[in-house]
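anyone seen this seq b4? input:
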Amino acid sequence: MELEKKVLSLLESDAKMSIKTIATILEQDEERITDILTKLEQEKVILGYNAIIDWDKLGVDGVTAMIDVKLVPEREVGFNRTAERISRFPEVRCVYLMSGTYDLSVTVQGETMKDIAWFVSHKLSTIDQVQSTVTHFVLKRYKQDNFIFEEPQQDRRLVVSP
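predicted toks r here
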């Protein structure tokens, strides 16, 4: 189990890391690492491999919103059925059960703010268990999944002294 955690930690920091590199770092043979990865994929511990992309550098516009959702829990299933239903919408990137005032935090991707507004008003708010929502639009990403989007810029202000 400890070796599996080390493999996962390396992959989490760099999903492109080769089996050979992982084996070298962990002082294991490649076959053992391949077996571990196969097992973790079959057991759905590893659900997939993603790239973190800075779409702004390619000039691709898009809007990300984080929506706080207050729900009425359903008898015997709580929030699960509603969260699973929300998860199936193609616009939805993430769904988290939260503590605090709101029950779910939903991350949504759209081409425009209007797309997000339409999603909230026509899809999300029409679900019976949804009591209320609060939408927060992402203005700028600084860091995501341990990746920093811009290196800190040097302070270029002139020093003013009395």
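Strands lie at 63-71, 92-97, 104-110, 130-137, 143-144, 147-148. The radius of gyration is 21 Å. kinda curious what u guys think
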